[in-house]
Description:
Layout: E1 2-3, H1 4-7, H2 13-18, E2 25-27, H3 36-41, H4 43-50, H5 56-77, H6 84-99, E3 105-107, H7 110-113, H8 140-143, H9 147-166
Parallel strand pairs: 1-2, 2-3
Amino acid sequence: MWVYQYSASTQDPAKTLGSIPNNAMACVNTHDMPSFKSFWRGGDLELNFRLGLADESYIEGLACERKKILATWEDFLGLQAHGDAELAQIYARLLVLLAGSQAQMLSLNLEDFWAEEAPQNVPGTTDAYPNWTQKHRLCMDEWMPAEAIQKLLAAVSAARAESKRGGARGGDEQRT
């Protein structure tokens, strides 16, 4: 599994994306991680502090490092996340890049499509956070027909198809 939130760094993003193994499942995040919006805006750091999972100096250090990482990626993508519209564009470009990678599979977090901020699960908590009880804010029939979502899914599908035509690095494994 190759997870963007674990792999993103201040190193060259093209090299980072190029390091995705062809037998991997690529994703932006998992069910045990913050949503894309929360990660980009630092909401997960604030939540971890509020829940007592980390002290202020540790959170400040993480926030400083993440700011550098996100600036690197914003420069690479040619976008600045000043508002939600720009953040949605960054998410879309990142998904298309992951879709066009060598990864055999791509996993998408549905809640990132509508920019959810609250996590489904916060590892290390039991009673401090209502894990696995959050219902989706939107039903599929509310968000799936949205033009922006349809365009994003079409771009992801096209990038996967192009990547598949290019052949998987290191072999001809079928990719979905």
